Amino acid sequence: MSSFESPTIWDFFFILSKDISCIVFNRLELSIVETIKEIIQPIIDSHEAFLIDLVVHYSRGVKNINIFIDNDQGVTTKLCADISRNISHALDAAELFYQRYYLVVSSPGIDRPLKLLRQYHKNVGRKMKIKYQENMQPEIIEGVLYSVTDTHIELKLTGNSIRTVPFLNILRAQVEVEW
Can you tell me the distance from the alpha carbon of 2 to that of 42, in angstroms, rounded to the nearest whole number? Predict the structure, then answer.
């Protein structure tokens, strides 16, 4: 179709079918992620760890499954290997994938933000950078994580003042590594 021709009904059909297939694909991916979570959660729990994040993506036609875990004592390579082996067996038995996939089980690492309340407790006493919303405006503060409750955190800022930030207002929280 040149830029001077009027679109035909087939042009609209193509655009609509392309959009619908995108929606169906995204729903299928959500369904796969939820199914994987149902399979892996008991395995992770049995190792006294907890799930931080599950990311499924494609790279060069191969499905990549990245599972980020943590526990209260810290994540070791042995823990990751044991969980990975058990999850691999469970995913293979569930026959979710018709072709090969890559499975990576690891700790979230220092570059990933905190997502769960349980992670904050582990980091009391560490320097944090918090992006939060106050009065509909985003704010960024840095300080030492002083305390954690079920509803908020407290940061000790320079000058020893304490700032309370409700969890519901936190947009991003990251541990700052001091070298």
Answer: 57
Structure confidence at residue 30 (pLDDT): 60
* pLDDT the model gives residue 143: 95
- Spans in the chain with pLDDT lower than 50: 1-4, 8-27
Burial 128-165 (b: 16+ CB within 10 A, else e): bebbbeeeeeeeeeebbbbebeeeebbbbeeeeeeeeb
Evaluate whether 45 touches 69 at the Cβ level (below 8 Å).
no
| C-beta of residue 123 within 8 angstroms of C-beta of residue 155 | no
Burial class (CB in 10 A: 0-12, 13-18, 19+), 57: exposed
Looking at the fold, whether 129 and 43 belong to one and the same domain comes out as no
Q: Residue 60's domain spans which residues?
A: 9-106
In a domain, 135, yes or no: yes
Q: Given 106, 125, 156, which residue is the final one in a domain?
A: 106
Q: Is there a single domain that holds both residue 100 and residue 121?
A: no
Is there a single domain that holds both residue 96 and residue 159? no
135 token code pair: 């009065």
